[in-house]
Design a protein that fits this description.
Layout: H1 11-30, E1 34-35, E2 41-43, H2 44-51, H3 56-61, E3 63-65, E4 70-72, H4 77-86, H5 89-92, E5 96-105, E6 117-126, H6 131-148, E7 153-158, H7 165-178, H8 185-193, H9 204-210, H10 222-237, E8 243-244, E9 256-263, E10 272-278, H11 282-285, E11 293-299, H12 300-309, E12 321-325, H13 328-343, E13 348-350, H14 357-366, E14 371-375, H15 377-382, E15 384-389, E16 395-399, H16 404-414
Parallel strand pairs: 1-5, 7-8, 12-13, 12-14
Antiparallel strand pairs: 2-4, 3-4, 5-6, 6-11, 7-9, 9-10, 10-11, 14-15, 15-16
The structure holds adenosine-5'-triphosphate and magnesium ion (MG).
Adenosine-5'-triphosphate (ATP) binds near residues 118 and 251.
Length: about 425
């Protein structure tokens, strides 16, 4: 058995995964993003510094080799920024638009839509503070989900910046202190390390308590307030629907200003299919230049689950031609002919067990083969074979006197 929270993706599911990934790649290239791939292991310190010591991820969810101080990445942003800094990508282009797709690892309680190895498509724009880019990224996420046929709502907040957030933190601390006895232990603990997290506690009692909490949106400095307004203007101009959510604070410390989530109502508690935000101080904090950034990640398991729930089905790769050799000589001929046909880009299947014609036709049917080439022993000697169109049941005679290459080109024409 595979480990709890680790899952195989079996062939019948892979087509949906490819649909998700291919739609992503298509859209990322429309928006002029380049792909980057990073290793799965990084120094533990990279995640502690970026995601933040007092976050769930760093406190309890990371897969860390304690003796080696390395960690299997729980998310992609930190590694991507590490690579961006290491390779001086900011020198090549002042604005880098990058995406990456791959597995992430978090030791949390496995449930539907929540695994310990899961996969993300992660998109980052480095080098511009422009609020249009925030709007464009959200619009791109919305476009991707729409093209996949996954209905979501987009929720957005601003978390301010180092100028205005400390002031809001104080206001929030006063609010929390007044309700100390009503809040859960986690919230009371968080109120000293990370009080904003109290706003997104899932405990119903805490939720009720924070309903009236002050909104950070009302306590932004002028620059953050202008930025937030411009992001909304950008979304409006692209006709992207969204709502403002003062409770959304995100579980990672590096966010500044814009944060957002794509939410589905079809996956129970695992409501977020994608999330992200701006992190203007992070590149510098990790030892890079003073460069603003923004990004988001989509959870691929959840996207695939949603497509499965809608019963989206995709035909597996179609077999163009099933080559059925009958008897040893014909099978030998079929074996080498199949290879030449594959060199000519046809998708070929065949039998290897010397089965009867009836059984080979059955296999061809099962594979949804478009054509079957039947090569009998006697027919082979006389230099011909039968090509059967499995849809129309039409049969035609094919000459097989010549060499494999010529047979392949005549079959290519007929199997169009
Ligand atoms: P959640 O609120 O569901 O825990 P998160 O805020 O921890 O999500 P992020 O770190 O922002 O998630 O990651 C972005 C996306 O990755 C999420 O919206 C979700 O779709 C997906 N994701 C996160 N953790 C998991 C997991 N353990 N299993 C599957 N998908 C996940
Ligand atoms: Mg989480």
């Amino acid at each position: 058995m595979a480990l709890n929270g680790f899952k195989d993706i079996v062939p019948s599911e892979v087509e949906l995964w490819r649909k998700v990934e291919n739609t992503g790649r298509d859209i990322f290239s429309r928006f002029n993003f380049s792909e980057i791939r990073m290793p799965i292991l990084e120094k533990t310190e990279l995640f502690a510094r970026s995601i933040g010591e007092a976050t769930d991820i760093v406190e309890k969810e990371m897969y860390t080799f304690v003796d080696k101080q390395i960690t299997m990445r729980p998310e992609a942003t930190a590694s991507l920024l590490r690579a961006y800094i290491q390779h001086g990508l900011y020198v090549q282009k002042p604005v880098q638009r990058l995406f990456t797709i791959g597995p992430m690892f978090r030791h949390e309680r496995p449930q539907k839509g929540r695994l310990r190895q899961f996969h993300q498509m992660d998109i980052e724009v480095l080098g511009t503070p422009n609020p249009r880019v925030d709007a464009e990224l959200m619009a791109m996420g919305a476009m991707l989900l729409e093209e996949l046929g996954i209905p979501v709502s987009l929720e957005m907040n601003s978390l301010g910046c180092p100028v205005c957030r400390p002031g809001f933190r104080e206001i929030l601390l006063t609010f929390i202190a007044d309700r100390k006895n009503e809040l859960c232990d986690d919230c009371n603990r968080r109120s000293t390390t990370n009080p904003l997290r109290v706003l997104d506690c899932k405990n119903p009692k805490c939720r009720e308590q924070v309903e009236e909490a002050p909104s950070i949106q009302k306590h932004l400095c002028n620059d953050c307030d202008d930025h937030f307004a411009s992001v909304q203007k950008g979304l409006d101009s692209l006709n992207v629907q969204y709502s403002l959510n003062k409770f959304m604070v995100r579980g990672l410390d590096y966010y500044t200003r814009t944060t957002f989530e794509f939410i589905t109502s079809d996956l129970g508690a695992q409501a977020a299919v994608g999330a992200g935000g701006r992190y203007d101080g992070l590149v510098e904090k990790l030892g890079g230049p003073k460069v603003p950034g923004i990004g988001f990640a989509l959870g691929m398991e959840r996207l695939v689950l949603l497509l499965q729930q809608q019963e989206v089905k995709i035909d597996s790769a179609k077999v163009d031609l099933f080559v059925a050799g009958l008897g040893e000589k014909a099978s030998e001929f079929a074996f080498s002919l199949a290879h030449t046909l594959r060199q000519n880009s046809l998708n070929i299947a065949m039998d290897y067990e010397g089965r009867s014609l009836k059984s080979q036709m059955k296999q061809a049917n099962k594979l949804n083969a478009r054509f079957v080439l039947i090569i009998g022993e006697n027919e082979l000697e006389q230099g011909h074979a039968v090509l059967k169109n499995m849809q129309t049941q039409e049969q035609q005679d094919i000459e097989i006197h010549s060499d494999n290459k010529e047979i392949a080109s005549s079959l290519l024409l007929r199997c169009q």
